[in-house]
Amino acid sequence: MIVERLSLTDFRNYARADLQLSSGPTVLVGSNGQGKTNLAEAVAYLATAGSHRVSSDAPLVRDGSDFAIVRATLAHGERRLNVDVQINRQGSNRAQVNGTGIRTGELGRYAHVVLFAPEDLQIVRGDPGARRRFADQLLVQRYPRLSATLADYDRVLKQRGALLKSARARRLDSDALPTLDVWDDKLVALGVEIIRAREALVRDLAGPIADAYASIAGADHAPDARWVLSVDGADPDDDERSVDVTESGDLFERFRSALREKRSAELERGVNLVGPHRDDLVLSLRGLPARGYASHGESWSLALALRIASAHLLRAESQLGDPIVILDDVFAELDAGRRVRLADIVGEFEQVIVTAAVEQDVPAELRVGTVRVEAGTLSGSGQVDREVS
After folding, report:
1. Where is ATP annotated to bind (predicted)?
2. Binding site for ATP: residue ranges?
3. Which residues are annotated as a binding site?
4. pLDDT tens for residues 327-343?
5. Structure pTM?
6. CB of 362 within 8 A of CB of 3?
């Protein structure tokens, strides 16, 4: 799959931009703050309905506008899809494919994009939320129906949390909250589906992660990834305990048992303490947790390996062909050897979009097409039209 044309209206710093792209690699070159990453972010939004830089959509809408429009023509062989997304500053977003309305959570059915950016270092070094977001975004591209499951789980979590907060404020015990058992049942049913999907994802990524890491780093440091679950007692605030906790047995019963065990603490604190929203994906190298033990270079290599492995997994399973691979400001952080190895790996994908402040940082084999970006102005191969603030 490739994106043939990208059109933006009131997206970030672009009042209007229209960019044509082709298969193979394209480098977007420009100084920092000129709008390169905004273009990459727009392409990725077509697949994930989210930004890799901000948690809400409001910053994507240009100042003074109520909404932004991202339009793209996607091509897979002879098939063409016209995807339109309206990103609203307030309220729900809207999406269409070939003129037919869809839920934004279904965008992953029609576009697969794997983006690596400096922010991805937080997958390795950051808090558990960064690792959960990585897994869930990949899951939705792999199985778009899980978008609804994740959204339903989030709604149940908020409703149950509101009930716990109300009980805490009113100093009620569990006997005075019969509806809490109803929310427990919903939390368990949805949570088990998410946990099982996440664990299956990690199993399927194991081989591709090991291969990608060795290819990027030029060494085998035995990279490993595994989930530790709050239903088994793992605590995201306690790194040592989260690494060691493992359990077996029926997942439904383990979940219910953990809820019973934590009921008093949840009522006392007024928060949800058990469920996939509290789980962590523990990444390790040479048997040690990467968070806290891996060097800067090792952390970069592992983060890259996670994205490259994701791209290979989507390629193997998707009827859409290769995912679009985006490398956002990556090569400046790599030494010469890693640059060459990474270029060799991504060069085999059908379309690769690279952003860079210095063109020479990008290996020559990826500089087939170049678009220069300056204050939102696009020039060079691939530029069609533009208009910025």
Report:
1. 30-37
2. 30-37
3. 30-37
4. 999 998 888 989 999 99
5. 0.89
6. no
